[in-house]
Amino acid sequence: MSSPRIGVLAVQGAFAEHAARLRNLGCSVVELRQQDDVRQHLDGLVLPGGESTAQTKLLRDLGMMEPLRQLIQEGLPTLGTCAGLILLAENVESTGDGRVPGGTVAAADLVDAGEPDGDTIGFACSALGDQRRPDPVVGFRTLPVTVRRNGYGRQLGSFTATAPLHVKHADGVSRGANNTSEETAAEDPIIPLTFIRAPRIIATAPKVETLVQLNGEPVAVRYRNQIACCFHPELDADNAIYQLLLSL
Ligand code: GLN
Fold first, then answer.
1. Phi, psi angles (nearest 5°) of residue 85
2. pLDDT at 101 over 80
3. Which residues pair with 45 in a beta bridge?
4. CB–CB of 45/76 below 8 Å?
5. At a CB cut-off of 8 Å and minimum separation 6, what does 9 contact?
6. pLDDT of residue 105
7. Contact at 8 Å (CB) between 234 and 48?
8. Tell me: the pLDDT tens digits for 102-156?
9. Is the CB of 86 under 6 A from ligand 1?
10. What are the catalytic residues?
């Protein structure tokens, strides 16, 4: 089989590190910098960490938001890390930086982002209730989770940890650890986690699978073709998250 062709969003952030890791794993990497780059055939997509406010603005200005959103919704295997998770999240809360004063956002920005998936609208409303305020980071909104930007703190919010990666098998059976505890199955690999001003996942829709938990909270999740993590797999030697993407 020829090597998988993975598009890495390369408008801002840690795209070079992801590209290098994917090339080492035998992938052919396409750096996505403009709308034309998105028209070629891709087998997968990586959305790197960086600054989600800058990334959403560039995606919109470059006309890449809608074509990429369509590919993700059509099932393109996608990995979003850190700011990439924020781009995928259906709901984003900010804790200060980047928020438009008064919490308002231009109506055009909301239209740009398209409507969330039909089966997740109820989740969006109930998770946020009356507290919902528009946020300047309006990305693809394809992943039914709520994230809080810089949710582990800003200056001192960078840290490392390790935790088991728990993946349901193709037969749908969850072996060993169940998703609501931190029990570890013998076959779950322990992976390194590097957090840098990371978003915190504060709510997930029922269909979202937790892949990695830390202190009882999800820090990596999967929903259909989308994998998203709060941490930076491109900065550690472990390949498990990339292998999971390639297995999709
Ligand atoms: N705090 C950044 C944001 O909100 C994300 C940090 C990262 O990607 N390392 O966009």
1. -65, -40
2. no
3. 7, 78
4. yes
5. 15, 32, 45, 46, 47, 48, 55, 59, 64, 68, 84
6. 31
7. yes
8. 232 322 333 233 333 333 322 332 334 334 444 468 999 999 999 999 999 866 6
9. yes
10. 82, 232, 234
Residue to mutate (ligand 1; options 11, 12, 15, 51; most atoms within 8 A of CB): 51
Max distance between CA atoms of the chain, in angstroms, equals 53
Per residue in 12-30, pLDDT tens?
A: 999 999 999 999 999 999 9
**Closest C-alpha residue for ligand 1 atom 2:** 51
With a 6 Å cutoff on the Cβ, whether 94 touches ligand 1 is no
DSSP-derived 3-state class of residue 6: strand
Judged on CB neighbours under 10 Å (0-12, 13-18, 19+), 126 is exposed
As a whole number, mean pLDDT of residues 5-10 equals 98
